[in-house]
């Protein structure tokens, strides 16, 4: 399927007037005929826009995966929805990194939780013992 918007140098949000002007200026009669039959009829344009968005999404996915058409397809209709390879980190890889980081933090917390819990219990017990000893000393000294 051709990307009629790309081939006519239009945005998918183009107005009907802009589309008519672009179709009239188009030197390719087959492209002009396709654009008139698809973009000039509202029901056809709505269906085309839905399919166009889906193919754009697939093109973005292919680019994220590093998939491109071979050199013999460059400039062909099959390449209309292809994008150059995207070297950004994929959403899946980003989520895996975030989960791995959370797991390592949790494991670190679990490893140190036991000793710190013992220190906290010992410190609390020692603090209570010191306060009670001080209170007893004051009680004995007063009486």
List the helices and strands and how they pair.
Elements: H1 4-7, H2 16-25, H3 29-39, H4 42-64, H5 91-142
Number of strands: 0
Question: Which residue ranges are poorly predicted, with pLDDT under 50 across at least 5 consecutive positions?
Answer: none
Alpha-carbon distance between the two ends: 101 Å
Count of DSSP-assigned helices: 5
From N to C, what is the helix and strand string? HHHHH
The outline comes out as rod-shaped
Oligomeric state as shown: single chain
Keywords: Membrane, Transmembrane, Transmembrane helix
Keywords:
transmembrane; rod-shaped; 5 helices; membrane; 2 domains
Summarize the structure.
With 143 residues, the chain is mainly α. 70% of the residues lie in helices and 0% in strands.
């Amino acid at each position: 399927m051709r990307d009629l918007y790309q081939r006519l140098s239009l945005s998918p949000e183009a107005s009907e007037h802009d589309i008519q002007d672009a179709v009239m200026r188009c030197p390719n009669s087959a492209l002009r005929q396709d654009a008139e039959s698809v973009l000039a009829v509202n029901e056809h344009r709505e269906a085309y826009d839905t399919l166009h968005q889906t193919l754009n999404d697939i093109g973005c996915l292919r680019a994220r995966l590093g998939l491109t058409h071979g050199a013999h397809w460059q400039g062909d209709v099959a390449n209309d929805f292809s994008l150059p390879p995207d070297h950004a980190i994929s959403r899946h890889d980003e989520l895996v990194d975030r989960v791995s980081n959370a797991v390592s933090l949790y494991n670190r917390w679990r490893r140190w939780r036991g000793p710190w819990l013992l220190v906290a219990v010992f410190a609390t017990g020692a603090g209570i013992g010191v306060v009670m000893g001080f209170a007893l000393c004051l009680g004995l000294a007063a009486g």
